[in-house]
Every structure is written in C-alpha cells, then in structure tokens.
Specification:
250 residues, alpha+beta, CNF1/YfiH-like putative cysteine hydrolases, five-stranded mixed sheet, 5 helices, binds zinc ion
Length: 250
C-alpha cells in the first residue's frame, strides 16, 4: 500500500494514503475511500479493508460537513465493521474524531481540504480533523484539541501532521474571501503562482495550532491540485477522496 507514513511518536501509527493502489474504476481509479462521491460501495469497502489491514484495526470515518463537532470513538462502536455503512455522526455530521482505544483507527477524508492527524503519545490519545477554509475558521482545530485534553492529553505534547492539501500556489479565491479569511488568521492570505489571490490553508492550520499551544507541527506532501498522485476536487469532479489515518498501537 502506497502511504506517506509520518512519525507522531511511540505507540502511534499514522499516514496519508495516495491515489495509487485500490480497486476503484474510472473516474475514481485508485484507492478511493469515500462512500459519498458516487463510487461503487463494494470497491470502497475493499479499499477500506486494505487500509484497515495497514492500520491493524478498522478505520472509523466521520460524516464530514465542514463543521466543528468532535466525536469520541471506541471499539464499542460497530460502524467500521461493515465498511458499506454510512460514516458516523449521522445527526449533524462530525469533522473531528478522538480516541484512546487501540481497537479503532481514526480516518479523515479529503480532496484539497487539510487532513490533520494528532497524537499525544504519552497520554495515549489520538485525533483527526478535517480542516478546509470553513472548518478552520470555525475552530475545528481548537475543538479537537479541547476533546483531546478532555481525554487526558497535554496540549504542549501533542504532535501534529498536516497532509497533502490545496496549496497557496493553486487555491485561488476571490479577493473579498482572502481579505475576510486574513482578518481572522493572518497567515492565510497568499498568492497563486499566476499572481491572483489565494489561501494557504496549511499555514493557517499551523498558526492556529501554535496559538493553541501545540509545539510540533509537520507538513507532509505537496499541493493536491497539481499532484496527480492525490485526489483533488478542484482539479476535476467527480473524484475520490484520500485519507489521513492515525491509530494508537496496543
Ligand atoms: Zn499548487
């Protein structure tokens, strides 16, 4: 399985999937992990099975809605055991997951938004968050950190990896949107490689995480819009979703 593996500390397995591998047919072709994009559910189930084999546990995904709701996951939740079933958080969705249970891996699905993996290895707490422009500005990172702290994590010991996402080079937005986002997070405004207004989502994530007290933030992978090894919604729809995955090891 082709993954960008990341080191988030002892007792933690973490990484970002690529498009390569998997059994999904065109136009998804590859390792599409999303049930909501029109792909064959049997193909997605097979791809999720491959991911679970790498993680060593079933992978739980939230039904992401660009919000700030965080759910706690443990192995009493049977959802991931049937990968054809809907993802969790059906009543209103959820964009972040936290767990202290090695019996489940946590996943976040993206195609341009930032997949955020978090771990506090000493306390044994892991988390994921889906951070696009809307969720980032609404506070999804602060929300997942609060839930991790509630589960016993020390924020200054939390290690974070930001995976492949739309880069400032290509993530073009209207000038008014750039100005509005920049008023809230100073590192978001950027310029595309052709000189028009854009946003640097991963710089914005890093700023918010640092402000919340996180010391270790690594950035993994490049710009999804220009990298055919990643799925990208901006590059063309319909498309699949790749995943960030984190699991506490027993
Ligand atoms: Zn780019």
């Amino acid at each position: 399985m082709h993954l960008l593996e990341v080191d988030l500390g002892r007792r933690v397995r973490a990484g970002f999937t690529r498009r390569a591998g998997g059994v999904s047919a065109s136009p998804y072709d590859g390792l599409d992990l999303a049930l909501h994009v029109g792909d064959d559910p049997e193909a997605v189930a097979a791809n999720r099975g491959e991911l679970a084999a790498w993680a060593g546990a079933p992978v739980v995904f939230g039904r992401q809605v660009h919000g700030v709701r965080v759910l706690r996951v443990d192995s009493t939740d049977q959802t991931p055991l049937d990968p054809r079933r809907e993802d969790i958080g059906l009543d209103g969705g959820c964009d972040a997951l936290v767990s202290v249970d090695p019996g489940r891996a946590l996943g976040v699905l993206v195609a341009d938004c930032v997949p955020v993996l978090l771990a506090e290895p000493r306390a044994g707490v892991v988390g994921v968050a889906h951070a696009g422009r809307v969720g980032l500005l609404a506070g999804v990172l602060e929300a997942v950190l609060a839930e991790m702290a509630h589960a016993g994590a020390r924020i200054d010991l939390v290690q974070v990896a930001l995976g492949p996402a739309a880069g400032p080079c290509c993530y073009e937005v209207p000038e008014s949107m750039r100005a509005e986002a920049g008023a809230q997070i100073g590192s978001l405004p950027a310029r595309t490689s052709w000189g028009t207004p854009s946003l640097d989502l991963r710089a914005g994530c890093r700023e918010r995480l640092r402000a919340a007290g996180v010391a270790s933030v690594q950035v993994v992978g490049g710009c999804t819009i220009e990298d055919p090894a990643s799925y990208s919604y901006r590059r063309g729809s319909p498309t699949g979703r790749f995943a960030g995955v984190v699991r506490l090891l027993p």
